């Protein structure tokens, strides 16, 4: 049996797909950079960990780990030795290039698998404009 599709219109403006996982949530966005915005990450990571794995159509590659309202590590996969944040060396024991989802699991404890992406029910949420 194939995946069900919803013919409802996609919301106008910035939006994300969200699903609840054991131990956290997965937020997927396409064609935007909300997951790289420091203000958003600081708010989302209050009391928890947030890992952003970013890849753009221009081959920009970025990993950001936020915890308790603070950017702990931020770097381009191709230049992992040039890290920023309050605890950038925490991710040193992991090989950065090509292992972004492993890094996300390392800092959040949540394993992202193909099954999670293909069997989870996502809700589409419109994100209000940032002032």
TrEMBL record:
Protein's name according to its UniProt entry: Uncharacterized protein
Species per Swiss-Prot/TrEMBL record: Paractinoplanes atraurantiacus
